[in-house]
Write a structure and sequence with these properties.
Layout lengths: L8 E4 L8 E8 L4 H11 L3 E9 L3 E9 L6 H11 L14 H5 L7 E7 L6 H11 L2 E10 L5 E9 L7 H15 L3 E8 L2 H7 L33 E5 L7 E8 L4 H11 L3 E9 L4 E9 L9 H16 L3 E7 L2 E9 L10 H11 L4 E11 L2 E10 L1 H4 L4 H13 L3
Antiparallel strand pairs: 1-2, 2-4, 3-4, 3-11, 5-7, 5-8, 6-7, 6-15, 9-10, 10-12, 11-12, 13-14, 14-16, 15-16
Length: 414
């Protein structure tokens, strides 16, 4: 007996403004499914206020209470959620999801979006980024430069979620949306497939400036009493093996932030940990409670104290500081640095560049140039955003205020 694929994801719309929309996912399980679902929800700018997870290892049932926006494209969200759910047939010989089949899928083509603007203005880069996000174009790399005469050249290396950017119609749609957003500012706009030679020419410096200290990319908790952002975001992670003969209970208490469930599920996915049952609740005061019954890939509890400590430590760090933000000197100039760890699958965190540009637009701070690159640091891949701030603006605001403004926007604490 077959089941309609669309029934894998069901929405129950909010009864009144401000109430959450309930999303139910009922499909075959796979390690990391919770991470993939939460990543899509984060990509659409939604927040999860409550969640229930349940699986027998082959089939899962997930309920998410999400808070949307008036502009949320619910039909498109359902489509994107369905795309990360394993396809299935309910038969006695069900061939449920095999992760290796998903891994064999080819990587999407990268396209170069190049355009000139007659002049720079505050918020220009954010306006472009907003258009690209609405068009479901994923930004892989950006190179923004301001010429001496004030003109701005933007190079965006993007992939298309819809995989249609090679068509004339999709390219014209993209260019028309950009022209509508930038109006008389835009001089020219071109889209082409980015070959290896073009990508090589766009690469920034492979070396990070010495001003970036080891502390920024540390994967260990700070010694002694936490200070700064750590002190304002207390986190408790404990493990218990006494409540289940086959599962380890993980209990987490922490402050809510944008993408919190994604950060937890991303960490567990990277450790190849399966969640058999879990529930999450965020209070109106911003405190979160999470209980997860987990097991290793071999179907057993986590008994080894070293493995327990390693996982607890990593979860604490990911919840204390899922993104790293610093404002440093780059010679005589001021540079904003933002870094986030990349999933082992190779995917970076959604909407980071969107939030950075929005924060700087709100802070009335102009951007002179941008470089986005990936670096292997401490055996882990990081996505690093290097934003050179306009010299005329960076002195008008204290560095700590710029750093706090960007961090709060990224964490959803604005």
């Amino acid at each position: 007996m077959g089941i309609l694929y669309e029934d894998a994801v069901v929405f129950r719309e909010a009864e009144k403004p401000g109430d959450p929309t309930v999303i139910t996912v009922n499909c075959p399980d796979k390690t990391g499914l919770g991470c993939d679902l939460c990543r899509v929800i984060l990509l659409f700018g939604l927040s999860i206020s409550r969640a229930d997870f349940s699986t027998d290892g082959k089939w899962c049932f997930i309920v998410l209470w999400v808070v949307g926006k008036p502009t949320t494209r619910w039909v498109l969200l359902k489509k994107r959620l369905l795309e990360v759910c394993p396809s299935y047939f309910l038969t006695s010989g069900m061939d449920y999801y095999q992760s290796q089949n998903q891994q064999s899928r080819q990587l999407p083509d990268v396209f170069l979006l190049k355009f000139w603007c007659s002049c720079d203005r505050k918020g220009l880069l954010h306006d472009v980024t907003e258009v690209l996000c609405e068009l479901e174009l994923t930004i892989k790399r950006v190179k923004v430069s301001t010429a001496p005469d004030g003109r701005v050249m933007d190079l965006f290396f993007v992939t298309d979620t819809r995989e249609l950017l090679h068509t004339k119609r999709r390219q014209e749609e993209t260019i028309n949306h950009l022209k509508a957003a930038l109006r008389d500012t835009i001089i020219s706009c071109e889209i082409e497939l980015a070959g290896p030679e073009i990508t090589a020419c766009s690469q920034g410096s492979p070396f990070l400036p010495s001003a970036i200290t080891e502390d920024m990319f540390s994967l260990e908790l700070p010694n002694g009493r936490p200070s700064g952002s750590f002190a304002s975001n207390p986190v408790s992670v404990t493990m218990d093996n006494t409540l289940s003969p086959s599962h380890t209970l993980v209990q987490i208490l922490c402050q809510d932030h944008k993408g919190l469930i994604y950060d937890i599920m991303r960490t567990l996915k990277d450790y190849n940990i399966q969640v058999s049952y879990g529930r999450f609740f965020a209070s109106s005061k911003g405190r979160c409670e999470l209980e997860l019954f987990i097991m290793q890939a071999d179907g057993k509890r986590i008994i080894d104290p070293n493995k327990q400590n390693a996982l607890c430590s990593r979860l604490r760090m990911e919840l204390l500081s899922p993104l790293r933000v610093a404002v440093v000197s780059r010679g005589p100039d001021t540079e904003l640095l933002v870094a986030n760890p990349v999933e082992l699958s190779g995917r970076g965190r959604p909407l980071v560049f969107y939030d950075i540009t929005l924060a700087l637009k709100i802070l009335n701070t102009s951007i002179f140039s941008v470089e986005i690159g990936r670096h292997m640091i401490h055996g882990r891949e990081w996505e690093v955003y290097r934003i050179l701030l306009d010299e005329g603006d960076c002195h008008s605001l204290p560095r700590k205020k710029i750093e706090a403004g960007v961090r709060n926007r990224l964490m959803g604490w604005e």
